[in-house]
Amino acid sequence: MHSVLTRGNTVLAYALSVLACLTFACFLSTVFLDYVTNANINTVKVVVKNVPDYSASREKNDLGYLTFNLQADLTHLFNWNVKQLFLYLTAEYKTTNNELNQVVLWDKIILRGENAVLDYKNMNTKYYFWDDGNGLRANENVTLSLSWNIIPNAGLLPNIVATGSHSFKFPSEYTTYRV
Amino acid sequence: MDFFKNIPTHMDYEGQARAEKLSRIIITVFGVVGVIWGYVIQQFSQTVYILGIGFALSLILTIPPWPMYRRKPIKWQPAKDGKELIHQSKDQGSKKGKKK
Nearest CA of chain A to the CA of B1: how many Å? Predict the structure, then answer.
């Protein structure tokens, strides 16, 4: 503490240590919180086509097409250790090719302070629902579920699946209409 | 350059101890208040800003050598005359060896 530089160094080092402790306190105050909540998902229109996926090959694969309703209130998930939520809607189903298929159909980022009450009617998916074969037509059990990834100031990056999923079946005929 | 060298930076020993203690207290208090306030309004950024204010305040209060850090200067022994000193050290050198 005998010179200006040593005093500055001491004060800065101590302030940074305190900041680290406070950040850790923030982490501790939120690490045991339960971030699971309910989401209402429904499908409106479900069709399936059989078209070539040129991004992968020239073979014809099943392409699902659906519109969905989504209601969820995520306001209470935000606290001082949540900067944003990354929501994504996944379709999960089983085919003869694969025991488990997971396709992300839609996603959204909700920043802190933005409206976190979701109420979507008849939404289009954001991404293509490609199967890697012909597993979609007449598939009896495709489950849509909403998940979110919490982006914190400090701490873990939990992935949370909402309660409330929706199962639907694809029609047994390919559609030839443009969708 | 001389201008910068002439800026006083000296603190006496007790002043240094007081400066360090004061800076610790200020930063700790602002940190605790900040974390409580941030938790109440659920904004961690406010915690960081409050700690930043405490940091700035403790820089202002402890880096310049304010008069309150210079109240107890060291009392040096009065300087002795140069010639006398040389004689003394010669005398002592012949008897007991060097002694300060």
Answer: 17
